[in-house]
UniProtKB/TrEMBL annotation:
<dbReference type="InterPro" id="IPR011032">
    <property type="entry name" value="GroES-like_sf"/>
</dbReference>
<dbReference type="InterPro" id="IPR036291">
    <property type="entry name" value="NAD(P)-bd_dom_sf"/>
</dbReference>
<dbReference type="GO" id="GO:0070402">
    <property type="term" value="F:NADPH binding"/>
</dbReference>
<keyword id="KW-0560">Oxidoreductase</keyword>
<dbReference type="InterPro" id="IPR047618">
    <property type="entry name" value="QOR-like"/>
</dbReference>
<protein>
    <recommendedName>
        <fullName>Probable quinone oxidoreductase</fullName>
    </recommendedName>
</protein>
<dbReference type="GO" id="GO:0005829">
    <property type="term" value="C:cytosol"/>
</dbReference>
<dbReference type="InterPro" id="IPR013154">
    <property type="entry name" value="ADH-like_N"/>
</dbReference>
<dbReference type="Pfam" id="PF08240">
    <property type="entry name" value="ADH_N"/>
</dbReference>
<dbReference type="GO" id="GO:0003960">
    <property type="term" value="F:quinone reductase (NADPH) activity"/>
</dbReference>
<dbReference type="InterPro" id="IPR020843">
    <property type="entry name" value="ER"/>
</dbReference>
<dbReference type="InterPro" id="IPR013149">
    <property type="entry name" value="ADH-like_C"/>
</dbReference>
<keyword id="KW-0521">NADP</keyword>
<feature type="domain" description="Enoyl reductase (ER)">
    <location>
        <begin position="16"/>
        <end position="329"/>
    </location>
</feature>
<dbReference type="Pfam" id="PF00107">
    <property type="entry name" value="ADH_zinc_N"/>
</dbReference>
<dbReference type="GO" id="GO:0035925">
    <property type="term" value="F:mRNA 3'-UTR AU-rich region binding"/>
</dbReference>
Amino acid sequence: MTIPSTQKVVLFRENGGLDVLRYEEDFPVPTISASQVLIKNQYAGVNFIEAYFRSGLYPSEKPYVLGREAVGVIAAVGKDVTNLKQGDRVAYLGGSSFAQYTAAEASGKIFKLDADIDEETAQVYAGLLINGLTTLTFINESYKVQKGDYILVHAAAGGCGLLFAQQILAKGAHVIATASSPEKLQLAKEAGAEFLINSSTEDIVARVKEITHNKGVEAVYDGIGKDTFEISLEVVARKGTLVSFGNASGAVPPFLISRLLAKNVKVLRPSLFNYLADQEEWDFYSQELLRLVKEGILKQKITKVYPLAEYRQAAEDLEGRKTTGKLVLEIPQ
Ligand code: NDP
């Protein structure tokens, strides 16, 4: 495989809105160390976190090549690498995946795929790891969902939302879904949501109280952030758990910890990567995720594939609440 010296990438050089995004065609291809592999990317998953780096909510180096996950083929291996070889097809979690080539640790968050998977399957794996592992770890570690629980999932037709609904249902719990349109709620229903709340037209607090006979929910999964935090705190049951895990509407402002004593509530602000901090955690959860997919318990819905050059449109759609399920980028070969 001949490796060029420059490549096509999506990056930003300063923080800001969609206008700071650049599609560049002559960005250097990374060099690899002895322990790394160079991956020629085929498809990369689009995630909300890209908006946080771009806006400056999360700090980053500049220029910053976006992307956190992809599927590709090993183009070169460092001299100490023994577990992967040139030509292996892999899925991985790692930075700078909105690029034709990405350097990654061979012993990192990466696993081999069958060489002969079709394009559709490659797209699914490219968009599976972040949302799949987030939802899997959060329903087992942030709050361990129990049979019979009532669980509120905000933005339930989104990338994370649809995967939350399927897995919570599989644990025998009841999913209460919010989403901003009837079409989105229908998708949440198909994924396993039992109760549907239209967040554009209905009072979420009143509806959750009605559904749970005033008890509230055992846990809330809230990736919307600023706009829903107070609602989530209000609908969580006594001794319940509020898992606030994202900022789609903006960051949650500081709040007084003493507010939690009213119901002995637990509030978590987890990050996926702190549940995958060592090799044992990665092996355990990535294998479990693969099992759920292979057994058909978890179905990832890739709703749109954009060419890499059109990432800006994908970001505009995602941040503009126009999307459902998962978006992926096709990387030019
Ligand atoms: P989604 O596909 O869920 O898209 C975001 C959804 O949030 C929208 O479709 C929309 O659904 C809802 N939303 C409500 N208000 C707004 C707003 N003002 N602007 C934009 N969206 C809004 O995205 P993802 O599944 O990729 O991510 C969901 C959340 O999970 C994000 O906050 C993300 O950062 C977080 N996340 C956190 C991780 C972690 O480790 N902590 C890991 C992975 C994801 P609707 O129209 O139905 O309200």
